[in-house]
Amino acid sequence: MKRSAPGTLAVLVLVGAALAYLGERLLLQLGAAMFVPPLTLPLTLVTVAAVLLIAAVPIRRSVTGASRRRVEPLRAARVALLAVASAHAAALLTGASAGVVAYMLLRTVLPAVGSVWLAVGALAAAIVLLASAVVAESLCTLPKDDDDDDPSGVPEAS
Fold first, then answer.
1. Nearest alpha-carbon partner for 94 in 113, 121, 56, 114
2. Of 15, 133, 11, 144, which is closest to residue 81 (Cα–Cα)?
């Protein structure tokens, strides 16, 4: 499994920001209320970040030999996949939160301070999730074997 590329994550952040900013503009032009992230969003994102790191640390300890406990390979694969999915989702949420914050702060009439702080809290929590997902990906990475150097995958004849 490949780790998340920084370029892919950057593109997802930009896409999320553009979609959220344009979505806020569209909502207000249609006469609907501006979207304000609920308080539970940052709490949930930080909780997911903590659970992800708690799940990834035993895998790293098992791989490096710091722990004698064996980790099931399917569990390790699931945690690695969760880390990749969390990185991509967190990149989108980071962009979306940044787009909402940008829209709120660039208006001529500023919204209530509580609304801005909720959006900033969601942005901070999305950044925390993105960072923890990237760290969890690196914790679930196996060290290179000697036979990984041969790109063909065919063993050498003796």
1. 121
2. 133
